[in-house]
Amino acid sequence: MGNKTKLQMRADLAVDLKITIDTELSRPELDRCIDRAYSDLSRFLPDEKISEDSLQFAVADEEVTFPLDAVAGQVVATEALEGVVAGSLCTIDGQPDVPRPLRYLLSDANNSIQGMTVIVEGIDKDDQALQEVSCYTKGDDKLWMGKKYFKAVYSVEFDQITGNASPDQFEVGIGDYTDVWVYLANSPIKWQSDSGVGDDDVAIVRNTDYYIDYANGRVKAISGGLIAAGEVCEFTYTKSQIGIDLSDLPDLIRVQRVEYPIGQVPQVFVTGDAFGKYYVVTGAGESEEQQQMAEDEQYRIYYDAKHQVANLYSPGSEPSFLTDTVLLASGAYALYILALKQEHQAVTDLGLARTALGNATGTHSALGLALDDMELYLDNSGSPGAEDAIGRLAQITTDIAYLDNAIIAATEAMNAYLDAVGAASTGDIALSNAVKALYMTSPNYVNGGSEPDILTYLTTGDALLNTVPVGGEGQDVPRAYREYAQAVKDSLVAAFENDRAMYLQGATARTNAAMGYANEAAQRLSLLRAHIERGAAYIAVADTFGTEAGHILSQIMAYLQQASQCIGTASADMASADRFRDGANERRNEVYSIWRDRKQYIGDFTAGAMRQYP
Known about the structure:
With 614 residues, the chain is an alpha+beta fold. The protein has helices at 6-17, 27-44, 323-379, 389-422, 428-440, 454-463, 477-596; strands at 47-54, 58-65, 71-80, 102-107, 115-123, 129-137, 143-145, 152-162, 169-174, 182-183, 195-197, 203-204, 210-213, 218-221, 232-238, 243-245, 252-259, 269-275, 278-283, 298-305. It has a domain at 70-175: Jelly Rolls (Sandwich). The protein is 43% helix and 20% strand.
């Protein structure tokens, strides 16, 4: 009653380890730690138990059902091999009738299959896991028998196969019943103590109708004998009288000693050896020779067994003063789990670092593309006239000397024309003004103040308008003056005006020519400006890619920083795992040293037998 239940042990572990249940460690994890601690305790200080029973050797009329005869495809019916690859599973179509070997059949008429490995998994007669691997190589017999006895088959898997194609087939069945050992209820059996009868009560004879394996307690029908497939026979025999069956001892680890017969004082302990679940008595006491044990005598077995693990509401089988050592070992295994969790977290963090580095690598390619595009617009080829900034600037360098000379020549030509137009005495405008002076100074035919100037004629004629004619001149006199004025203009002024218009037209032509040269100079300057502007446009585009490259570079740095942080976190995880594991090792080594040191238990005679704690 002083021991602790698993619920109490969980709570104590949470206190010892300073954890919260279901946060750092779950209930199943803590339970597993406790189970492992009990397993360790069983190895160091097993539970000591005593079993006593009466010896009964005679077995009468034990019924044994012999197996069915061969059945092809009993376990795996015809399985087509076309398309089968390593890892393919067969369909399980049935089970063996009794624990027995399996019969394998490969159908490959053209011998195309180079090799094949088949793995069969199931259980044996004791419901223990069983596996059989069969390998076929081209040239081997295509029909073969297995050696292991399967009570049930759970899977038939092709581990490897080469050269399979239609119409290749494979099947798993059961073989001849006369090749199958059938297990009796007991083993071993006393030599030549057996007899049997068939289901018709006719006696069956050893080595004629059946073979018997005394050591393992099994019989096998003989081909041609009286035992038919599926027949139920009865066997009478005597169990071996030199040993004891241990199969009913729960949680057996090892036999310490066997007392036989019981009731003698001093006690008699026989000597012997344990083979699997059978104890063979080799001698009576320390000096007597081996002898058979008697029917109905009592025997007592002192043996080591596994400790019963505490469950949720009941304590375990360990002595109460060892419960804290179980908790100490449980805490060690809990720290191992925490260490493993930190290692798994480190693997996760390193995976995140690899992802970040992979992203940086991918982004680095984008950076290369952005820089390539930037170079494309800055200096694709570097030759004059190339479609990039350097090419445009190089074109300016190439064109500028020619353009300078052309602009200077155009400017000089423009200046010469303008000089010809506006020179003080010889220019077109000056000559035009000189012609004007010829008909407006002396004599002044326009407004000189005396006839025949135009103004005087028009003034005189205007004065005669609306007046009474004198001397019969009539109304035509004012018209005559106008005509005189017109005549003066046409005959005297017009000639000068024509010369003057010619000079003005020359001035206009020279001015237009000068403007043409000015336009030429401007166009040549525009060409230089166009090169500069195009170069600037390429630089602007390159700047855009440069900005993009800057952003990508920042992203790469962020990925590298993230990777560095993840690697740092993984290193911290591994350091934590190492500390957890060191703590676990210290706890486990401590509890192992306690369990090894038997002096720890001297003086405590209530926890177990005195002999266990010398």
